[in-house]
Amino acid sequence: MTCNESCWVLTGDWDADLWWAIPRNKTTGSPFSVEFDYNWVLERENKEKDIIGWLHTHPGMVAMPSSRDHATFKAWVSCLGKPLVCVIKGIDGWRAWWYLNDEDEPVEYQVKAVKNLIFGVTPEEFFNEEEKRSNERIRSEDSSEPEFEPKCEG
Ligand SMILES: [Zn+2]
């Protein structure tokens, strides 16, 4: 049995804490590479502006971006003009690599997959200075502390 790489386009959204995405438009490639529908991505981005990256599998390999993945992602970051996440499912599980620009190495952030939804930690660098300030303002205005521990009263 051969095991080919599969690829999905990730459409979704993010806030200051989390990003989330739905995998769409699956394509299957060869064992060591995968292609996706460029036109679909460009049309989707033009219409919805919700492309946030790609998910692909590394059958029998660790979930670290290959040199081909690096080249592909840097090109797309440059083309779409925004950071993109490279989610890989490999023998070591799910991992998410954020390409913040078309020069630097990607940065790894936590990621989880639940049913048809993938979500993870939003890189701080994702936001420009103005957005960072408004997020801080929203947080400081909200004085109620969330309670994660159930308390036993009385
Ligand atoms: Zn890959």
Number of domains: 1
Chemical compounds bound to the protein: zinc ion
Question: What is the global morphology?
Answer: globular
Report the average pLDDT across residues: 85
- Major sheet: order of its strands? 6-5-4-3-1-2-8-7
Q: Which percent range describes the beta-strand content? A: 25-35%
The percentage helix is 10-25%
The secondary structure category is alpha+beta
**Low-confidence regions:** none
Structure commentary:
It is built from 3 helices and 8 strands. By secondary structure, the chain is α+β, with helices and mostly antiparallel strands. It has one domain (6-130). The chain has an 8-stranded mixed β-sheet with strand order 6-5-4-3-1-2-8-7. Strand 7 and strand 8 (117-121) form a beta hairpin. It is globular and about 60 Å long. The chain starts with 5 loop residues before the first strand and ends in a 13-residue tail after the last helix. The mean pLDDT is 85. Zinc ion (ZN) is lined by residues 56, 58, 66, 69, 88. Zinc ion binds at residues 56, 58, 66, 69, 88.
Short overview:
This protein has 3 helices and 8 strands. It is of the alpha+beta class and 154 residues long. It has an 8-stranded mixed β-sheet with strand order 6-5-4-3-1-2-8-7.
